[in-house]
Amino acid sequence: MRSLSKKSEKIIKEMIEGGRLFENPLSVMAREGARMMLRVALEEEMTTVLGRDLYERAAGSIGRRNGYKQRTVKLSCGDITVAMPKARNLEPPLRSKVLPPYRTRMAELEEAIPLLYMNGLSTRKVKRSLKKVFGEKGLSHSTIGNITAKVVEEFNAWKRRDLSGLSVLYLVIDGIRLGVRTDTKEKEAVLAATAFLEGGRREVLGVSLGNRESTASWKGFLEEMRERGLKDPLLIVVDGCPGALKAIEEAFPGVEVQRCTKHRMENVLEKVLKADREEARDDLRKVFYAPTIEHSKEAARLFEKKWRKYPSAVECLLAGLENCQTYYRFPSSHWKRIRTTNAVERCFREVRQRVRTIGRFKDEQRALATVWWLMNDAQKRWYGVRMTKEATEILNRLRGEKERLAA
Length: 407
Description:
The protein is of the alpha/beta class. The chain folds into three domains: 102 residues, no CATH class; 46 residues, no CATH class; 239 residues, no CATH class. It is 50% helix and 14% strand. The chain contains 16 helices and seven strands. The strands form two sheets. The protein has a five-stranded mixed beta sheet with strand order 5-4-3-6-7, sandwiched between helices. The chain has a two-stranded antiparallel sheet with strand order 1-2. The longest helix has 26 residues. It starts with 5 loop residues before the first helix and ends with a helix.
């Protein structure tokens, strides 16, 4: 890919040296960022049309630069002025595709406003911050509300989408506590599900508001996805939440369950004195990260023998240990992704950081749309699972076993 033209580099250099790129992050994005983006794009377009860079000569070339004209681009809350390059002796005359004639509105900046809100700025803070860019009047609360409402509309459409066309290999579910203003004070848990799909990619599957991760909340969440066509996955990954475990049994009977090994390790270590914790952690890693299930079972027996002075820790490890070892039945290349609920937990860490400045959400839809927006943004950086020939064969065998049992 070719580098930027000299003129484009000069534009960026002028803005940096002038200090305009360091005034204020919101100013950069709203004013100088938009202006620089358009100027660079227009200069690159002119360089491509003429076939030569600024001050370059080329034999047989036609057309030449002929100064600039000012073009104004309207935003919903103000205007920006852009220096648009002109050319002469061009046949046919240049009609810019970047900024066509008579185009006076730029929707891209409006799309940035809900992004500001979803990244932790309240409506009041967005309004106050944009005053520095657009003057004292800036944006009204209603204007910001209308723009951010687009995110809620997108979320509602996404939440109603048909899931029948998806073939889910692994379903990972977890919940997070958020402050939400509702008619009752009980709805404080946001429930979320991500899925590893056939082919290996991973995506957000569902987001809903629940009542403190109760069985009823989880069952409603899972059944709502079922009603939209979600088929039985091969495996559901969950932490130790009793409500979620019971809901899975009722909504997805017969589907295998993997208890999060990370949560189980933490639960066991809570029952060990701090002085012994690191050594106990090393022994637990041998249980949960063993190369085979036989090695895992042997490591569990050794842990029981070695740490008998902590009977509650041993009991915590052995209670339902087989549910923490389900992942051994699946392709080894997938183990890292399916033995914990990290697929959702990491997203929730980012959600907590972003919503810290918001405090308590004023309504249910705004809370859910924010979580969805942030998870959807994080989704672009997610890793899926590798679908090797061996992995495909193992999964097909497991499907066959499931179908025979169902028959």
